[in-house]
Design brief:
The protein is of the alpha/beta class and 734 residues long. The protein is built from 24 helices and 20 strands. The protein folds into 4 domains: 2-6 and 25-339, Alkaline Phosphatase, subunit A; 356-473; 478-558, Immunoglobulin-like (Sandwich); 578-733, Leucine-rich Repeat Variant, CATH 1.25.10. Helix content is 33%, strand content 14%. It has a 9-stranded mixed beta sheet with strand order 1-9-3-8-7-2-6-4-5. Strands 10-11-12-13 form a 4-stranded antiparallel beta sheet, covered by helices on one side. The protein has a 4-stranded antiparallel beta sheet with strand order 17-16-19-20. It starts with a strand and ends with a helix.
């Protein structure tokens, strides 16, 4: 296979047909447009034969890679599906737009769109089959079709398409699936396709037991099943005579769904496969100066981030890339220079909080642990169902783990980690304290700091506080109904008495969909509004509007002769970003967390934070004291300071202070504060409180009845933590 980076000059591909983008989209005349097909699968690393994995059985994808470009350095910005897909669909970091916590129902800034909307505006028929998981409800303007029946075959004749097909067979849940139905599917694999557990090459951080090997082998069996599913889609494309006109991507949404893979931003959780096949007729169009970079059996080793997918699709379609998009195009007319670094983030994963950021170049990985005092081995109920995870926990409890296998359960994490990926691909030898790598550490630390600042990372704002900023009192804002305005005579239908209707929505950043007649309850058949609509006298025009993170508007109707408004005022709702930036909160919190590097000497800094006017700063002061106090003199200062915070105006500060004081033996005064927080109307505040009680272990026993009451809480994550904590306390009592 050949190694190529691939450079390009501007390629401008026009839109055509109904719904084409207006001139502002930045298109120019040129050749007809290609189709695009994404084949995505869940929870896999580059564990394919075409990536040199001799254990893998993936003949179809290996053949596909031989027809296209295999990208070797592609990374998710998150090790789990929802934040990952949020970044893919918007081209922006979740830590910038507030979609970084798992299943958090974000409210991005008004200018953020799902990128297929730009393709639809340019005349593409866009279908998604069928996963969304964007950290917000998918806006109905994003796709022409979004369901398990969505297919390019449903498009209007001769219309170019962008189609997504997502496979779930490789999902984490299927690795531990031993049901008769799954065993039957696995038995359908031939003798040369099943994976022998005895031949598995386990990473050094896993214990070598039959259960672990069985999980590993089944994971690879699932990839083989997926390989067949991928070929079936390619066969459909070929049968339709579309293979020569369709650029096909195959990719995985994050790393393998096994412990220390999925959810983590080590390479095992963030590095993924990406294969792109560009038919010969389109190579010079996509990379006119270097079409050889797209020829069969090519390997590309550029660093590519998932947030680069959106701008690359727009670039290949000849559509101007909106300035707010943070990704860089790696193909097409607006191809950017190759990256020097990729970045990643881990925040709340299901019911477990963590706060980790990483920077990676082609050789080194830098990790910054902002909650360094927490073990990697936190409980996540869903993850605990995996046999491999159970084996790791069992052997840890028995003291039988060795070497790198013990790292997962270390009581704390280093503030910083640095790995030489070339020499240490499994990232088990931390070089952060090695003087030989001091310059590398300082460079990567500086790059992280700049990225954290420049992308306006809001991860240091405690989630209960952020939730109140983005959606006060938990109320969703409503998108205003569209308004019909500026009706003019339609020259082309003058004899019929037709007219042209303009549609606007008062809600800033809203998108509008319209249809003439038809079933307004059907999700299919709505056109994205990009220009005034021509209407005949007998026709009925329907319209509705949406904005990401808001509730959709109702459907409104217009007929010729109905009154139309002359002017509509745009409603500019104050956004959470304004509050954060006006208060200077981000840089203040970043400065506060520099004290993590001071160790035991950080106590004065944390004490000063407790006097700050901003609750987020006081919260980190309490957490910092709790994490850093190791000596009696420090405790003598910290204990009375935190006692005064048991009556803080902010619930997150009260919880953090009470948690620390309970740990230090002051349960009598602090435990009632945690119990009271369990009744808070905000679900994430209750989650903070019940996590604190769960981490206290036996000291939380007086609150057992209150914890048990939360096993029926309205919030799933609160229920999970409460159930685990109550079961453990009851087991110890027995």
């Amino acid at each position: 296979m050949q190694v190529a980076s691939g450079s390009a000059v501007a390629t401008l591909i026009p839109a055509a047909g109904r719904g084409a983008n207006p001139p502002s989209a930045g298109r120019s005349p040129g050749p007809a447009r290609p189709n695009f097909l994404w084949i995505s699968t869940e929870d896999i690393s580059p564990d394919l034969g075409c990536y040199g994995d001799t254990y893998a059985v993936t003949p179809n994808l290996d053949r596909f890679a031989a027809q296209g470009v295999r990208y070797d350095n592609v990374f998710s910005h998150s090790g789990v599906c929802a934040p990952t897909r949020s970044g893919i669909i918007t081209g922006m970091y979740p830590t910038t737009i507030g979609t970084h916590h798992m299943r958090c129902q974000g409210v991005p800034p008004h200018f953020v769109k799902c990128f297929p909307e730009y393709l639809r505006a340019a005349g593409y028929y866009c279908t998604n089959n069928s996963k969304t998981d964007y950290q917000f409800d998918p806006p109905f303007t994003a796709w022409d079709e979004c369901s398990n029946k969505a297919h390019w075959r449903n498009r209007p004749k001769d219309k170019p398409f962008f189609a997504v097909v997502n496979f779930t067979i490789t999902h984490e849940s299927q690795i531990r699936n031993r049901t008769p139905q799954m065993l039957k599917r696995l038995d359908s694999l031939g003798p040369g396709e099943r994976h022998d557990p005895a031949r598995a090459q386990l990473p050094p951080y896993y214990p070598d037991t039959p259960e672990v090997r069985r999980d590993w082998a089944q994971y690879y069996d699932l990839i083989t099943l997926m390989d067949k599913e991928a070929q079936a889609v390619l066969d459909q494309l070929e049968a339709d005579g579309l293979a020569d006109d369709t650029i096909v991507w195959f990719w995985g949404d994050h790393g393998r769904g096994l412990p220390r893979g999925k959810r983590w931003i080590y390479d095992s959780g963030s590095r993924v496969p990406l294969i792109v096949r560009v038919p010969e007729k389109w190579r010079k169009t996509i990379l006119p100066r270097n079409p050889e970079a797209l020829q069969p059996a090519t390997v590309n080793d550029d660093l590519i981030a998932f947030i680069d997918f959106a701008p690359t699709m727009l670039s290949m379609a000849g559509i101007a890339i909106p300035k707010h998009i943070q990704g860089r195009a790696f193909l097409g007319g607006r191809k950017a220079a190759p990256r020097a670094y990729v970045f990643g983030a881990r925040d709340r994963m299901d019911e477990a909080y963590d706060l980790i950021r990483c920077v990676r170049d082609t050789r080194f990985k830098y990790i910054r642990n902002y909650l360094w005092h927490l073990s990697r081995g936190q409980d996540i109920n869903y993850m605990n169902e995996m046999p491999t995870m159970r084996e790791m926990r069992r052997l840890h409890a028995e003291g039988r783990l060795q070497g790198p296998q013990k790292q997962y359960f270390e009581p704390t994490k280093p503030v910083e980690e640095l790995y030489d990926i070339v020499a240490d691909p499994h990232e088990v030898n931390n070089l952060a304290g090695d003087p030989q790598y001091r310059e590398v550490l300082e460079r990567m630390r500086r790059v992280h700091t700049e990225w954290h600042r420049d992308t306006m990372d809001i991860g240091l704002i405690p989630e209960p506080l952020f939730d109140e900023m983005k959606r006060p009192d938990g109320r969703f804002e409503q998108t205003a109904e569209p308004v019909f305005t500026r009706m003019t005579a339609d020259r082309g239908r003058k004899a019929e008495g037709g007219g042209t209707v303009t549609i606007v929505c008062p809600t800033q950043g809203a998108s509008i969909a319209w249809r003439i007649g038809g079933d307004v309850k059907s999700p299919v058949g709505w056109e994205l509004y990009v220009r005034p609509v021509s209407l005949r006298p007998q026709e009925v025009l329907h319209a509705k509007a949406c904005r990401i993170g808001f509730r959709d508007s109702g459907v409104v109707t217009f007929r010729l002769g109905d009154p139309a408004r002359e002017r509509v005022t745009t409603t500019q709702t104050k956004h959470w970003r304004e509050d954060i930036e006006t208060a200077g909160l981000r840089p203040r919190l970043a400065k506060v967390k520099e004290a993590d590097h001071l160790g035991a000497n950080a106590t004065p800094s944390w004490l000063a934070c407790l006097r700050d006017a901003r609750p987020a700063v006081r919260y980190w002061g309490a957490v910092g004291l709790h994490a850093s106090v190791r000596y009696p003199p420090d405790l003598s200062l910290a204990q009375p300071a935190l006692t005064t915070r048991l009556k803080d105006s902010s619930v997150v500060v009260r919880i953090a202070a009470a948690h620390a004081l309970c740990d230090w033996g002051d349960e009598k005064v602090a435990l009632p504060v945690l119990v009271e927080a369990l009744k808070h109307p905000t679900d994430k505040a209750r989650l903070f409180a019940v996590i604190a009680l769960a981490q206290l272990g036996e000291k939380a026993r007086p609150a057992l009845a209150h914890i048990q009451a939360l096993t029926k809480d309205s919030d799933d994550y609160v229920r999970r933590v409460a159930t685990t904590a109550s079961q453990r306390l009851q087991a110890k009592k027995g």
